[in-house]
Amino acid sequence: MSLLELDGVKVHFPIKKGLLFDRTVGHVYAVDGVSLKVEAGETYGLVGESGCGKTTLGRSVLRLVDITEGSVVLDGTDLAKLPGEEMRRFRRRLQMVFQDPLGSLNPRQNIESILSEGMIAHGIGKDQEERREKIKAILDKVGLPSNALARYPHEFSGGQRQRIGIARALVLEPDVIICDEPVSALDVSVQAQVINLLEELQEELGLTYVVIAHDLAVVRHISDTIGVMYLGSLVEEAPSDALYAEPKHPYTKALMSAVPVPDPEVEDKRERILLTGDLPSPANPPSGCRFHTRCPWAQAERCATERPELRDIGGGHRVACHYAEDIASGKLRLTKGEVVSATREGVEDNPTEDTPEAEAPEADASAAETPAKIPAQAEKPAEKAVVAEKAVEAEDKAATAEEPAKAEGKAEKAAEAKASPKPEAADEADEADEAVASDEAKASEEPEKAV
Ligand SMILES: Nc1ncnc2c1ncn2[C@@H]1O[C@H](COP(=O)(O)OP(=O)(O)O)[C@@H](O)[C@H]1O
Ligand code: SF4
Ligand SMILES: [Mg+2]
C-alpha cells in the first residue's frame, strides 16, 4: 500500500445566489475525480494551468476544504471520514508549504513563536526550552542562522521566508509535505536553491512530497512521478523521465512543446503545438473529454460525448485519451490547432542574462550555496521572449500585410500562443492565490485550525 492514496476525489464548490435565501444555482467542479498514489520517500509533482484545481486538491488532502466525494487514505486511514478531533491530530502528519511565504507567516509573531505554535498545539516538546532547541536544529537544516528566532518575517528575503515556511512544516515531523507552488513567488535564481533544499531535506530525512506547480520546469527534476491536471482531473500520469521523454496526452504534448530544450540541435527541431480556444470554466466544463474544445486531435462525436478514463497504456503512462495510441503512432491527423517550428530565433545562448530576474538576484542567506540544478528553469524568460517576439512579429505583419484577414489570424494565434499553454500564467495564479493567501493568513492566526 502507498503512503498516500486518493481515490475518486471530488471537490465541488456550490455557487449560491439570492438575497434572503441562498439558492445553489450551480457548482464549480474544482476537483472532479482524481485518483493517485504517492509512495513513501518519493515526490509526486502535480502540474497544470492556473485554475485547474491543484490547490484545491492539495487542500482537500488536509481537509481544509470539504471533500464532496472520494477517499484520501494516509497510511491506511481514510481522512475523508475522520471526525474533526482525530483529523486535527492527523494534520501534524500532513503539512503544507504555501506559495506566498509572507502571506502565510503572521507578521506580528517572531520566528520562534511561529514555529512553536504548531508544536504546542500537537504537544511536541515538554517545555519551550526543548522546543527552542529543536527549532534551532531545524533552522540550521534549512540554512537559516539561529539568531533568526527573535526576528520577524518582514526582516527576511523571499527565499528565506520560504525556508521558514519549510521549517514550520518540518518541526512537526510530518509524513507528507504538500508544497503548493513553493517557488512561484521567488526570483528565478532563488527558485533553484529552494528546490535543491527540498531535495536535500528529502534525502536526509526521508520525506514524502507532493509538489504543486504551474511550471513544468519546477517539478521536472524533483519529481519521481508527475501528474498533469486539466479542469479538475488528471489527464496523464507517468514517471518523470517517461513523461518528459514522450508525453502521450495531447494537453501534455502542448505544454511540453512550449518548453525550450537546452540542446541546440534538439531545440532546432522542436515543434510547438499551438492550442486553439480558451480554458473553459470549471463551473461549466465541456461534455465528454474535457479537453475536446482545444484538443488538436479531437474526433467528432466520441470526444465530445464520452469522457475518457485514465488508463494504463504501457511504458508507465496512465493517459485519459481515447486515441493516445493512434496519436503516438501518427495514425491520427490534426483536426485543429497548428504545429509550428519552434526555432531558436530570438533566443539568447545564455537566456538567464539580460533578464530582470537574473539582474536582481535576491539577497538570500545562502545565495552562494548552490548553482542552479534545474537548467530548464533558466529557459523560462527565454521562452517568454520567444513568445512575446512572435506576438509582436505577427502583429507587425498584420499591420502591413496584403491579406489582412490572414495576418489577423496569425496575430490571434500568436496572442493565443502567448496565452494558451500558459504554464507561466502568473496573473491568474496571483488572483487565485489571493483568496488562498488570505485563508492562510487567517489560518496562521488560528493555530488550532491551521496545524
Ligand atoms: N473556496 C472556493 N469557492 C469557490 N470556488 C473556488 C474556491 N476555491 C477555488 N475555487 C475555484 O476552483 C477552481 C480551481 O482553483 P484552484 O484549486 O485554486 O486552482 P489552481 O491551484 O490549479 O490554480 C478555480 O476556478 C477557483 O476559482
Ligand atoms: S479523448 Fe479526444 S479530445 Fe480528448 S485528448 Fe484524446 S483525442 Fe483529444
Ligand atoms: Mg493554486
Automatic annotation (TrEMBL):
Low complexity bias: where? Answer: 363-379
**Composition bias, kind Acidic residues: at what positions?**
348-362, 426-437
Any idea which UniProt keywords this protein has? ATP-binding, Nucleotide-binding, Transport
Entry keyword Hydrolase:
no
User: A Gene Ontology MF term for this entry?
Assistant: ATP binding
Q: Which parts pass through the membrane?
A: none
Q: Tell me the ranges covered by the ABC transporter domain, including all copies.
A: 15-256
Biased segments, Basic and acidic residues type: 380-425, 439-451
Recorded superkingdom: Bacteria
Under PANTHER family, the record lists: ABC TRANSPORTER, ATP-BINDING PROTEIN, TRANSPORT ATP-BINDING PROTEIN
What name goes with this protein?
Answer: Oligopeptide/dipeptide ABC transporter ATP-binding protein
Q: Taxonomic lineage per UniProt?
A: Bacteria, Bacillati, Actinomycetota, Actinomycetes, Kitasatosporales
